[in-house]
């Protein structure tokens, strides 16, 4: 959860999980998250999953070339095939260009204490 | 979870909840979701929340004017103030323009059975 500059790319991945193979999925998801973070142009990600198995992961990239390079990464591609075979009922993926960003936090909370209470336009 | 056309707007709201007032929050969230769906230019939303309180809601809008009209809706504005006071530790919001979308589903699953197994570029 942080701000990203205007013109960076958000890849919005929404997936409905199957009810199988949870441990292997969690292991693969952790590997993917760490591997993504090592890629050139990676800016960060936000991820959440409801108990009913609906998950959203948004990864942020410096530009579209970086997002496409991650899409085409051989390890990512192999894990995606596994996901289609076992872990996902369905998913959607939206690739979008950030136009503006805001952040808000209660004051005085750890590292976020510097953010003011009003929304802060970034880009 | 559905495809949206190129040039539509995704509003990515990532929020860390406080550990208080869960019932009132859930009621307000339901009201907001239903009210958003009645707005001109609303295309849909995806939402998930992890047990640790991190939630992501992505709402999709026909254009930026529709997204801004929802931002400025008086009921939405009032609920946002309540959220800052009680329900959220912090949040980020990214407004992004969709460049391309894909959907994938296992074949034969209810209404999604018409979607082919390969990713389908939309916009």
Short note summarizing the structure:
Chain A is of the alpha+beta class and 123 residues long. The first copy, chain A, has helices spanning 22-37, 64-71, 74-87; strands spanning 9-17, 42-49, 54-61, 88-105.
The domain tally of chain A reads: 1
SSE string of chain A, helices as H and strands as E:
EHEEHHE
Tell me, rounded to a whole number, the average pLDDT of chain A. Answer: 86
Q: Which oligomerization state do the chains in this entry correspond to?
A: homodimer
The major sheet of chain A is characterized as: 4 strands, antiparallel
Low-confidence residue ranges of chain A: 108-123
Report on the structure:
Chains A, B: Keywords: Monooxygenase, Oxidoreductase. Chains A, B: One of its GO terms (molecular function) is monooxygenase activity. Chains A, B: It holds the Pfam family ABM. Chains A, B: Residues 23-81 form the ABM domain. The structure is a homodimer of 123-residue chains. The first copy, chain A, is built from 3 helices and 4 strands. Chain A is an alpha+beta fold and 123 residues long. In chain A, helix 1 (22-37) runs antiparallel to helix 3 (74-87). The first copy, chain A, is globular. Residues 108-123 of chain A have low confidence and may be disordered. The A-B interface holds A 1-4, 10, 12, 14, 16, 46-51, 54-56, 58, 64, 84, 88-106, 109, 112, 115, 117, 119 and B 1-4, 10, 12, 14, 16, 46-51, 54-56, 58, 64, 84, 88-106, 109, 112, 115, 117, 119. Strand 4 (88-105) of chain A pairs antiparallel with strand 4 (88-105) of chain B, so a sheet runs across the interface.
